[in-house]
Write a structure and sequence with these properties.
about 5% helix, about 110 residues
């Protein structure tokens, strides 16, 4: 879905504490038919590697932080950044870090 307006929340914000060992994935549910976009705030001091999936197991697998010569599906969220990302609606999400922890706030919605 392509939306050119400002981001409009369509569900509750979820907090995830990313750590070296990713926490259990949580499903970010939307209250609208769209809801395939997510506002991600990394309030931590380190990069978090976000894993997305159709279920908790896939999200956890996809959150493995990349290392030299090893490719992963994890999406880096730099410390102190806010991004709008697009995934399937009602995605399962978790995140890992290379060291320390980072607090992520994720809100489903639509818009840029």
């Amino acid at each position: 879905m392509s939306v050119s307006g400002a981001f409009t929340p369509s569900g509750n914000t979820v907090m995830i504490t990313a750590a070296v060992s990713a926490p259990n994935a949580v499903q970010i549910t939307s209250t609208t038919l769209g809801g395939g976009q997510y506002r991600v705030v990394n309030n931590g001091a380190v990069t978090a590697f976000i894993g997305i999936g159709a279920n908790a197991t896939i999200a956890a697998t996809n959150s493995n932080a990349p290392t030299t010569g090893v490719n992963t599906l994890a999406i880096p969220a730099l410390a102190g950044t806010i991004e709008i990302l697009s995934f399937q609606p009602n995605a399962w999400i978790t995140a890992s870090t290379l060291n320390s922890t980072a607090t992520l706030y994720i809100t489903p919605g639509d818009g840029l």
